[in-house]
C-alpha cells in the first residue's frame, strides 16, 4: 500500500461516496477518509432515519381515520422498538455503501482527514500523510446551535434519533425543514410539541399557500406555534428544561431541540493553509465544476453551501468525477431542483413560487383545494392544495407546489416534464388518472387568477 493517490476524498457521505466510486470506476486510484460512519448524514442521521420516523409518526393519522372505514384500533407505541429497527436498517445501508466503494477498488480509511496543502492530506489518528493529484472535500455540515446560556442542555437532529426515551413534551426552535419534520415526528408519536420561530410563518422562502397550509395542518395536529420569538436561555428544572423566551416568558419542557440551520464543516480542516477560499457564509467557494480557488482541490455537497440536499450532493460528486477523471466536463444545473418537506401534511415543490414568478413576467396561476378522498368518510376537513404556475396564456410551466399526501412522489414526476420545458398544453395532453389527487395537475381549465404587469387579477 503506497500513500500516493489520484484522488483522496475527505468525507464518505452522499457526495464523497458517489465521487469516489465513479472516479475509481474510471480507473483512478482513490482513497476515501471517514471519521464517523460511511454513508454520512443522509444515511446515518438525516434523510433515511428521518423518513423511517415519519412513517412511524403517520400511523397516528391513519389510526385516526381508520374508524370511519370500519376498523377498531387499539394501538400503542414503543420507541425503543423503532430506534432498534432504524439502527438495523442504517447498519445494513452502511454495509452496502462500504461494499459499493470496495467493488471498484476504493480504499476506505477510517480516520479524520486534514488538508495540508494543494496535494497533501494528513490522517489525524494514524499520524500518516497522503499525497494526491486531486483532493475532494465532501465533509458536509453540522447543526448550528445558537450561543445562549444553557444551550448544552438541548439536542439537535443528531441526537434526536437515539433519545433513550421519548420526552413528554418538546420545544423545537427553527422554522425550516428540520423543525417542521421533527415536529411532525414527535407530535405523531404522542409528544406534546411546540415550535418556536423568530419569523412570522414557518418555511420562509416557500410558496405562501404551502406555508399557510402546513401551518394549519400542524396546528390541527395539536402542534403549538410560537412566532416572532426566540429562546434566550435554558436551565435545568428538575427533570425538565426551563426555557426563557425573548418576550420574558419562561416555560418547562421535557426536551428542547435546535433546528436552527446547519453550517459547513470547514473548521480546522487546514483549508486556509492550502489557500482554499471560503464564501462570506463560510462555505467552500467553488465554480460550476466544483473546483475551489486551488486548482487541485474540489468540493461537493453541503460544505459548498449550494443546495443542501442529498441528490444534489450526489450529482455534484458524479459530475466532478466525469469532469476530472472521464474527460467529460459537466456542470450541475442547480436551477430546477425538486424538493419535499416530509411533514404532515407533506409538501412537494419545484420551480418558482407565486411571488417569485409574478416578478418575472405575466403569469397564470391554477389552484385547487380539495378534501382528499381518504378524508371523505371521516370528519377530517383538511384540504389538499395543488398549485401550478405558468407563463401567461398556458405557456411554460414555471412552478408546481403541492401540499398533502403523496406530494413528494408527485413532485418528482412533475420534475421530468418541467426539465423538458413543458407547457400547460403538454400537461393537458395527458389523460387524467382517476380517482387520484394528481389528476388535478392535468385537468386545470381556466386559470384561478393571473398576474399582468405584476398586478394580481381575479382569485
Ligand atoms: C435531519 C436531516 C434530514 C435530512 N433529510 C433530507 C431529505 O429528506 N432529503 C434530502 O435530499 N436531504 C436531506 N437532508 C440533507 C442531506 O442529508 C445532506 O444534504 C447530504 O447528506 C449532504 O451530503 P454531503 O456528502 O455533502 O455530506 P454528508 O452526508 O454530511 O457527509 C459528510 C461526511 O464527512 C465526514 N467528515 C467530516 N469531516 C471529516 C474529516 N475531517 N475527516 C473525515 N471525515 C469527515 C462526516 O462524518 C460525514 O460522514 C437532511 C439532513 C438532515 C440533517
Ligand atoms: N426534506 C428535505 O429535503 C430536508 C430535510 C431536512 C434538512 N434538509 C436540508 O438541510 C438543511 C438544514 O435544515 P434546517 O431545517 O436546519 O435549516 P433551514 O435553513 O431550513 O432552517 C433553519 C431555521 O432556523 C432559523 N434560525 C437560524 N438561526 C437562528 C437563530 N440564531 N435563532 C433562531 N432561529 C434561527 C431560521 O430562521 C430557519 O427557520 C435544509 O436547508 C435542507 O437543505 C432537507
TrEMBL record:
Recorded name of the encoding gene: gorA
PANTHER family named among the record's database cross-references: GLUTATHIONE REDUCTASE
Record-linked NCBIfam families: PRK06116.1 (NF004776)
Entry keyword annotation includes Oxidoreductase: yes
GO molecular function, one term: glutathione-disulfide reductase (NADPH) activity
Lineage: Bacteria, Pseudomonadati, Pseudomonadota, Alphaproteobacteria, Hyphomicrobiales
Family: Belongs to the class-I pyridine nucleotide-disulfide oxidoreductase family.
A Pfam family annotated for this UniProt entry: Pyr_redox_2
Binding locations of FAD: 51, 113, 302
Protein name listed in UniProt: Glutathione-disulfide reductase
Binding annotation for NAD(+): 174-181, 261
Domain Pyridine nucleotide-disulphide oxidoreductase dimerisation: 337-443
Annotated cofactor note: Binds 1 FAD per subunit.
Disulfide bond sites: 42-47
PROSITE patterns membership: PYRIDINE_REDOX_1
UniProt keywords, alphabetically: Disulfide bond, FAD, Flavoprotein, NAD, Nucleotide-binding, Oxidoreductase, Redox-active center
Cofactor: FAD
Boundaries of every FAD/NAD(P)-binding domain copy: 5-317
Amino acid at each position: 500500500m503506497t500513500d500516493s493517490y489520484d484522488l483522496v476524498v475527505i468525507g464518505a457521505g452522499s457526495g464523497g461516496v458517489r465521487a469516489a466510486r465513479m472516479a475509481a470506476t474510471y480507473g483512478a486510484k482513490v482513497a476515501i477518509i471517514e471519521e464517523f460512519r460511511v454513508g454520512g448524514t443522509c444515511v446515518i442521521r438525516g434523510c433515511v432515519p428521518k423518513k423511517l420516523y415519519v412513517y412511524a409518526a403517520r400511523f397516528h393519522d391513519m389510526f385516526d381515520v381508520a374508524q370511519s372505514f370500519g376498523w377498531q384500533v387499539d394501538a400503542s407505541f414503543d420507541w425503543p422498538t423503532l430506534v432498534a429497527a432504524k439502527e438495523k436498517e442504517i447498519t445494513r445501508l452502511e454495509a452496502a455503501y462500504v461494499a459499493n466503494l470496495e467493488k471498484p477498488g476504493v480504499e476506505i480509511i477510517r480516520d479524520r482527514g486534514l488538508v495540508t496543502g494543494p496535494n497533501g492530506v494528513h490522517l489525524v489518528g494514524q499520524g500518516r500523510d497522503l499525497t494526491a493529484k486531486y483532493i475532494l472535500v465532501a465533509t458536509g455540515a453540522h447543526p448550528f446551535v445558537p450561543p445562549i446560556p444553557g444551550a448544552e442542555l438541548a439536542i439537535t437532529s443528531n441526537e434526536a434519533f437515539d433519545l433513550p426515551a421519548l420526552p413528554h413534551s418538546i420545544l423545537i426552535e427553527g422554522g425550516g425543514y428540520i423543525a417542521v419534520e421533527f415536529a411532525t415526528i414527535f407530535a405523531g408519536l404522542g409528544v406534546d410539541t411546540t415550535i418556536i420561530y423568530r419569523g412570522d410563518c414557518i418555511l420562509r422562502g416557500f410558496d405562501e399557500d404551502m406555508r399557510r397550509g402546513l401551518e394549519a395542518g400542524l396546528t390541527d395536529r395539536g402542534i403549538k406555534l410560537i412566532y416572532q420569538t426566540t429562546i434566550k436561555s435554558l436551565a435545568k428544572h428538575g427533570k425538565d428544561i426551563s426555557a426563557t423566551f425573548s418576550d420574558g416568558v419562561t416555560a418547562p419542557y421535557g426536551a428542547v431541540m435546535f433546528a436552527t440551520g446547519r453550517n459547513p464543516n470547514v473548521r480546522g480542516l487546514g483549508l486556509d493553509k492550502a489557500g482554499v477560499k471560503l464564501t462570506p457564509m463560510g462555505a467552500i467557494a467553488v465554480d460550476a465544476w466544483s473546483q475551489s480557488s486551488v486548482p487541485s482541490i474540489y468540493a461537493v455537497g453541503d460544505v459548498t453551501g449550494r443546495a443542501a440536499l442529498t441528490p444534489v450532493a450526489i450529482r455534484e460528486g458524479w459530475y466532478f468525477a466525469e469532469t476530472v477523471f472521464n474527460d467529460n466536463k459537466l456542470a450541475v444545473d442547480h436551477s430546477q431542483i425538486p424538493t419535499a418537506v416530509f411533514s404532515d401534511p407533506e409538501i412537494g415543490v419545484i420551480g418558482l413560487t407565486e411571488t417569485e414568478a409574478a416578478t418575472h413576467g405575466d403569469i397564470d396561476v391554477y389552484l385547487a383545494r380539495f378534501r382528499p378522498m381518504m378524508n371523505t368518510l371521516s370528519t377530517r376537513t383538511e384540504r389538499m392544495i395543488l398549485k401550478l404556475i405558468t407563463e401567461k396564456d398556458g405557456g411554460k410551466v414555471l412552478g408546481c407546489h403541492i401540499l398533502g399526501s403523496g406530494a413528494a412522489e408527485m413532485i418528482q414526476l412533475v420534475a421530468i416534464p418541467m426539465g423538458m420545458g413543458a407547457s400547460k398544453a403538454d400537461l393537458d395532453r395527458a389523460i387524467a388518472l382517476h380517482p387520484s389527487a394528481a389528476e388535478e395537475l392535468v385537468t386545470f381549465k381556466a386559470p384561478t387568477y393571473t398576474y399582468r404587469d405584476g398586478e394580481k387579477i381575479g382569485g
